[in-house]
Design brief:
This protein is α/β, with parallel strands linked by helices. It folds into two domains: about 1-280, HypD, alpha/beta domain 2 (Rossmann fold, 3-Layer(aba) Sandwich); about 285-330, no CATH class. The chain contains 15 helices and eleven strands. The chain has a five-stranded parallel beta sheet with strand order 2-1-7-8-9. Strands 4-3-5-6 form a four-stranded parallel beta sheet, sandwiched between helices. The longest helix is centred in the middle third of the chain and has 13 residues, at about 120-135. The two termini are about 25 Å apart.
Amino acid sequence: MNKILNIMEVCGTHTHAIAKSGLADKLKNKIRFISGPGCPVCVSAQSDIDKMISIALLPDAITATFGDMMRVPGSKISLQGALAKGADIRIVYSPLDSLNIARENPSKKTIFLAVGFETTSPPIAVCIIKAKELKLKNFYVYCCLKTIAPALKNILNEKNDIDGFLLPGNVSVITGYKVFDFVAKKYKKTAVVAGFGAPEILSAADALLACINEPQIKNAYKWAKPDGNKDARKLLKKVFKIKEGFWRGFGRIKNSALELKKEFEDFDAKKVFKIKNIKEVKNKCRCALILKGKIIPKECPYFAKICTPSKPLGPCMVSSEGACAAYYDGAV
């Protein structure tokens, strides 16, 4: 096979593993790895980031967030900037940590910033159910949860040079890898579910190369099953409804976002806090092109020049799953 294949790794953790292991350089005569929309922080709309910052600055508010949200730039400041202005922002490692914060601070409003894909969504659903059981009146969730398959359809509906995909392992554990059947059946591309270490990614890449001309969905991650985790999906169905979502770089994608159902809307920060309508603000950042696989970070004219981890133009440079952050480490 003489052609160098363009393979999109959909998971941000894959991007960083490829970077750290040097797989991109080792396989450069066979594969050109392209990062996709696998970083949930990175695909969160600019307007949502600005609204989160506005909520964080409200009096008597405690904002709970995962750490990689802190330095994502809003149109004016980041959450880290809001912290410097006096906002009470706390980094948590589990959604349940935010629930405990609410219980310990009954006189304040605790808002958890829920950003993630199907992997993160079930524990957040558990947290919301628990809040309802406890009859908490000061706990809220700003929901920016998304589902990955519709974004892949969006990419495949556009003209591109992608030859195949490495699919996210942990998302597939929840959804089941059958949800990606459309990649092979409709778009005639091969995709392989991959684990997260360099050996697992290499094994998945080898499986992909072996059947690149016979489009199919293959599994190279032992924890993933065709139908996924039914109990986790029941939790999601109980708490959330599926709606249209706005993705950075993509715009509106049908059936790609989760929203709290009516019986849980008392915990919905978007409905409880009346934040003025904030429009999307365009800047120089090329994250949009990177998330769709149109360019790799090194092809961005601002990469490592006016866009660095200390002064980022966009989330891909500071998120723990961002492609630009992986490339900036110098391993790709």
